[in-house]
Amino acid sequence: MGRSCFPKCKLAKLMGWLQIILGGLVILVSILSLTKFYSAGFFLRNEDICQHFYTVKDVYGDFDAKALSDRVGEVLNSLEALQAKLESKVQELEKNKGTLDKKLLEEEIVRPLHSANVALRQIRLPKIEEKNNTLKEDPLINFFITEEIRKYITPKENRVGNFNVYGTDKVYNTIGHACVLYKKELEEYMDYDIGSYCDDDWNLAQKLMLNGCDPVPRRRCLTRASKVYQKPYPINESLWRLPDHRNVRWGNYQCRNFECLSSKNPKRGYSKCTGCFEMEKEKLKWVSNSSLAVDFLIRDVLAIKPGEIRIGLDYGIGTGTFAARMREQNVTIVSTAINLGAPFNEMIALRGLIPLYVTLNQRLPFFDNTMDLIHTTGFMDGWIDLLLLDYILYDWDRILRPGGLLWIDNFFCNKKDLDDYMYMFLQLRYKKHKWAISPKSKDEVYLSALLEKPPRAI
Ligand SMILES: *[C@@H]1O[C@H](CO)[C@@H](O)[C@H](O)[C@H]1NC(C)=O
Ligand SMILES: *[C@@H]1O[C@H](CO)[C@@H](O)[C@H](O)[C@H]1NC(C)=O
Ligand SMILES: *[C@@H]1O[C@H](CO)[C@@H](O)[C@H](O)[C@H]1NC(C)=O
Ligand SMILES: *[C@@H]1O[C@H](CO)[C@@H](O)[C@H](O)[C@H]1NC(C)=O
């Protein structure tokens, strides 16, 4: 009895201390955050009133900031020591097979303590020196109530006061302006306990992305992962093998494994790129002769610029097969991927290829004149608005290098719209290497083209 009580009693004592300290901390943190937000004018919309009553000097006039900052430092140190002590205690208990619930200790005490520590470190007192009164309040800050969103979009100053070459000393975490239309969803997304596990809510994030709240804010919670994650297959096997289903969290899909995603299954849960998860079918793409003129072969395309095509982008929805084939040709391809009802991103990554999680909303995250090749298939078809297509084409043009290739692969549309789309693709006056049109159905046609970006004089 005595033995088993020993760690318990000690712990009770420890917890008592901890509660007192944490309580004190909470008060301290609240006071500090409050003064911080007052000084930034977050609660005051009228700048004149703000300047009149709450200049930094007034708030801190009879307040020894240096002493407070020293005190915070002291608390930080003692917190850290306490945390170390607690953690070693947990390990000790584990070794001695103590009766204590280790998980509880870890989740209820060590982790919150750690978060409190981090939160305390992030408190910054406003500078005491008289500041140029140009501190501008971001107009969106007052729109959101959730503290974590407000913190996210507040510009963060460079801690050592350095300016970058564009004259800014702040990092601006942005959220797309369309976020204001999805206030409820965004507040739900940002409602979490700092440092704990996030909900399994990538689907909510993707909804925000597709609705223009893009980029989605970063969060300070831990993303969930498969409990039974297996090491991936080696690259000489992974490229053409269905991955281990244990490496995917299936909670937000209709299927529960990769075999279920077969096009033969009517309940597969997705409609774009059906058949993409069948490796026998995928193996034929771009390498085996086809009877259709619109099916170009990788061999023929690369032969146009031998040795010149090294890096590129595959813009569409797929499982990375184009990138896998190009990898075999020593060409590095990044594949765009959205998880529309199936784990496209996970599949591409598990094959050992790079998924790029972007929507149609975004300017591509590549610099001007850098890519040797852009290949696009199966994503933008006859549904796409011409003005949107125009912006996308110009963005592709921006990232393609002079002499780079644009491969439009099996674009399909209604016959009557073909002229419009042809005009769009030809407007940039690229050199035409290949151009083919084949019927798809009675009313629809396929168009494939291989175009080269010309050098530009200016
Ligand atoms: C305050 O800002 C203005 C322009 O924004 C600048 O010209 C001036 O030098 C600044 N003053 C101080 C003291 O930084
Ligand atoms: C893949 O490579 C590993 C060594 O790197 C080798 O042991 C294995 O047999 C290879 N697998 C195949 C299918 O070639
Ligand atoms: C595909 O066609 C080319 C010529 O058009 C030919 O050289 C090649 O052998 C064919 N490949 C297959 C697998 O039939
Ligand atoms: C790719 O690179 C490897 C190593 O440099 C080389 O052995 C192989 O022949 C190359 N493959 C192609 C298709 O160029």
TrEMBL record:
Keywords for this protein: Coiled coil, Glycoprotein, Membrane, Methyltransferase, Signal-anchor, Transferase, Transmembrane, Transmembrane helix
Magnesium in keyword set: no
Xref: Gene3D superfamilies: Vaccinia Virus protein VP39 (3.40.50.150)
Nucleotide-binding recorded as keyword: no
GO CC terms, sorted: endomembrane system; membrane
InterPro entries per the UniProt record, alphabetical: Prob_Methyltransferase (IPR053223), Put_SAM_MeTrfase (IPR004159), SAM-dependent_MTases_sf (IPR029063)
GO molecular function: methyltransferase activity
Residue ranges of coiled coil: 65-103
Primary residence: membrane
Cellular compartments annotated: Endomembrane system; Membrane
Pfam entry (one): Methyltransf_29
Transmembrane regions listed in the UniProt entry: 20-44
Top-rank taxon, per record: Eukaryota
Membrane topology recorded in Swiss-Prot or TrEMBL: Single-pass membrane protein; Single-pass type II membrane protein
GO biological process: methylation
Sequence similarity: Belongs to the methyltransferase superfamily.
Protein name: S-adenosyl-L-methionine-dependent methyltransferase
Organism name: Crotalaria pallida
